[in-house]
Fold:
Amino acid sequence: MEEKIIGIEIRVLANLIGRHLNDISSHKFDCNLTGPQGLFLCYLYDHQDEEIFQKDLEVNFNVRRSTVTGLLHCLESNGFIKRVGVDYDARLKKIILTPKALEFKDTLEKYIQEMEHTLTKNLEPEEINEFIRIIGKMKRNLE
Structure:
């Protein structure tokens, strides 16, 4: 029996998730909102009462600065966010959701819930908890 390589299996799963997110978003939205952009918007929805900066997204999603810069540029170009300077540090720009982004909130959150349901539909709660625990260990191993 062929032994599975965990890293490859995780990569394949990540690719499938990304493809699924992009497929759903292209059908549910009138704009070209990608899966990662949708996830960034969900994070911003959940943290509307806080000042969120590019660095926060880099840390929370564990992605490089250049990746976040590109995603934010697309979100800004499509009218979902604005980057606004703060009084206390001229180098910082906080990320603000626009009214257009707020219009998409319920639809986007529903679509993320659908994705979670699809991912976990044949799993018991104990299996999900164990998977989260193992993924956490793997992430710590790589940090």
